[in-house]
Prior knowledge:
15 helices, single chain, mainly alpha
Amino acid sequence: MQLDFMSTLQSVLVLFILIIIGFFAGRLKVISAQGQKDITNLVLYITMPATIFNAMQLDFNMERVQRAFTILIIVAICYTAMLIFGWLVAKQTKLTIAEQDVFRVALLLSNTSFMGYPIVSNLLGEEALFYAVIGAGFLFEIISWSIGIYLMGRNGSGKVAFNWKKIVLSPGILSIVVGLIFFLFSWQVPQPLDKVLNILSPATSPLAMIVVGLILSRSNVSKIFANKFLYVQAFLKLVFIPLIILFTLKALNFSNYELIIPTIMLGMPTASYVAMFAQNYDNHPEFASQMVFMTSLLSVVSIPLITLLF
């Protein structure tokens, strides 16, 4: 499967323009901090689940199940390697122990929902989104709410407590599980509800990008650009890790969705969850937000360039 560079660039530029709209809406106070939270909740609890559920409304066949399972195993192995890599690299830095944990989580967690899904959907269509949801999104939610909060909280001022209800009842996991049940049993959604889902689903991409822009608008841009370490983290997250995944999978003769989905999804910028967790556990939230900002900004360049190599 070959991705056309110009169409990829155009798709990413469309999303980038939406980010810019969100950025200026935040800077000009068109949308307040409370409004940002409300839009985030709208995406997380309404439009994103609709997108995920819709992506899984495909005809059941074993080939799809086997391919989804293969991608899930690949992504699980990649997450393990990324965790080890982040652990080793953090040890070599001059960061404090608490900052090292923030750095590790920032390398591990990619913006699967707010950027990964829209980009996969725009570039590859609904079939690819199905594999992205099962192969990457499912693991992302589990790892975020387990390893993510453990690393972020163990050296923070907040109390670390695993809340399995948050994992199981998170909108991402719930929509995947319900969508998977409908897929496995080939159940059809009633027509009125199907129309509602089809109306809600397209709203995810623009709203999610605007939210990313709003997050960036709350950052001190000049201070971020002056921090050289952020460029190192962005290079590792956006270039080094996806290239290692890409060339390793190619060497193992993987192709098509098995090659593209893990590379794209794990090559996304640092997830906004990282800033949220850092805030909740009072573990250098500014540092976490800066990494979210820098990787989100530079991903506009890195994503089209990575697609040239497929």
